[in-house]
Structure formats: C-alpha cells, structure tokens
Amino acid sequence: MKKKLVVLTGAGMSVESGLSTFRDADGLWENYPVQKVATHEAWEDDPNYVNEFYNMLRGKLLKAKPNKGHELVAELEKYYDVTVITQNVDNLHEMAGSSKVIHLHGELMKVCSERDVDDERYIKQLTPDNYTVAPDEKAGDGSRLRPYIVFFGEGVPNISRAAEECSKADIFLIIGTSLVVYPAAGLVQYVKHGVPIYLVDPADVSAHISGVTHIKKGASEGMKEVAEQLISL
User: Fold this and answer.
1) Which residue pairs from 191-196 have beta carbons closer than 8 angstroms and sit at least 24 positions apart in sequence?
2) Strand, coil or helix: what is 132?
3) Closest CA to 85 of 161, 8, 156
4) Burial, 221: exposed, middle or buried (Cβ in 10 Å; 0-12, 13-18, 19+)?
5) Is-contact 69 84, C-beta < 8 A?
6) H-type helices in the chain, by residue range?
7) What's the average model confidence in pLDDT over 91-104?
8) How far apart are CA 185 and CA 87, in angstroms?
9) What pLDDT sits at residue 31?
10) Is 93 a known active-site residue?
11) Sequence-ordered list of residues with C-beta below 8 angstroms from that of 211, at least 6 positions apart, any chain
C-alpha cells in the first residue's frame, strides 16, 4: 500500500505559471481592493462588477500552463497516495494530472447560484470557449450566476474534509503559502506528531512548525529537490 502524501499549496505554487499572487507587491489586491471584488457586500453592491473581475481572471488563467512544480506533484502519484489541498482557485493541478484535489477557496472556472452557492444542480463548469458571465446572467434557479469562489467572511465548506486528509498523512508537504490565512493555515495542526513535514517557499515563513524541512526555493526548483528525496525514501 502506498504511503499517503498530503500537499498543501498556496499562491506561490502558481506564480511561476504567470498568475499574480493576491498579497505580494503588485498583487491583485493592489489593483483591485478586496472589498470591491471578494466580499458578499461587494456582490450585493455591484454583482456585475464582481463578475467582470472574475471574467478577467479567467482570461488570464486560460493563458497559463502548469509549471514544473505542478507536474512533479502529479508525478508523485506513481509513488504515493497523493491528495492536494489548494488555496488557489485555478485548475493548474488538475491540468498537470493530479487526480485528487480539494479546493478550499473555490474554483475559478465554475459559477453557481447566488441563492445557494453549494447547490450542485446549479454549479456550472465554464469552458475556454465560454468562460465569461454576461451582465445579470441567471443560474438554473433564476438567481444570478456568481463566481464559485469563497468570498472573505464566508465559510470554507471543504475545510473539514481537508483536515481529515491531513490527519491521515504519512508525509506532509507545503508549497508556496505564507501560512497566515486561516482556516487553511491551521491545517498543519491536524498532522500527526512525528510525520515528516516539508516546506517549499523562497521566503521565511512566520508560522512556527516544529521539525520542518524548509527548502528556500520556488515551486519548480523546490519540488525537484523534494521529489528526489521522496522518491528515494
């Protein structure tokens, strides 16, 4: 039986694919204030403006490709039972070939009912040929279509599922996240004592994690080093 590898990824995972992080210098929040595009209040105030913002993000995503880091995470499925837990809303892990991906903050290429975000009957998968939401476009229940994104202040429906996966990990790998955004940052607390933890991030991470192997490199270069170590175990 394969050992279980749980991988937690953040914005730094996708930055090498050309997708801006939200919080770094010149990140998306520098140009689009969070209170205007990523809160329930913003949606109530101007839903068409919010949809235009996510239409723009989808256009950027469609030009992006998985980087070597994404590909190496997917390749580790040959050796491990891999579950990816991502804070990212892109689908680059899936594009790279990862088969089990839990999205904590939603999925950019999906839209849903504003009346009931998680009603699967009205969650719609967008395509490269049809990735925009028109002004006041309706979901199947007659309410507006809204991004299938967890806005600030909303609950994170997949956090319990993610915590359960973390508790089963034989190896825990963190890539490209500052571990300051909760509840995702708290997932490491569910990892059993003594489980090896690897952290791939070029920057210092303020969160205290005991016994962590910190590889101060970007996602692609760092994953090359981690993959070599994990394959040799």
Assistant:
1) 191/6, 191/166, 191/167, 192/167, 195/169, 195/170, 195/171, 196/171, 196/172
2) coil
3) 8
4) middle
5) no
6) 28-31, 34-37, 40-45, 47-61, 68-75, 92-96, 159-167, 219-232
7) 98
8) 10
9) 64
10) no
11) 196, 197
Report pLDDT digits (tens) over 3-14.
Answer: 999 999 999 999
Across the strands, what pairs with 174?
8, 199
Alpha helices in 76-218 (DSSP H): 92-96, 159-167
Eight-class DSSP state of 21: P
Cα distance between residue 214 and residue 225, in whole Å: 11
Candidates 105, 193, 208, 214; catalytic one = 105
Q: Is 82 helix (H, G, I), strand (E, B) or coil?
A: strand
Place of tokens 């996966």: 165
Confidence of residue 34 (pLDDT cuts 50, 70, 90): confident
Bridge partners, residue 106, by sequence: 149
191-221 pLDDT, tens digit each? 999 999 999 999 887 666 777 899 999 999 9
Residue 118 has which token pair? Answer: 């998680």
Mean pLDDT across the stretch 97-102? 98
Cα angle 181-21-222, degrees, rounded to a multiple of 5? 85
Q: What contacts 56, CB < 8 A, 6 or more positions away?
A: none
Comparing CA positions, the residue from 10, 50, 63 lying closest to residue 219 is 10
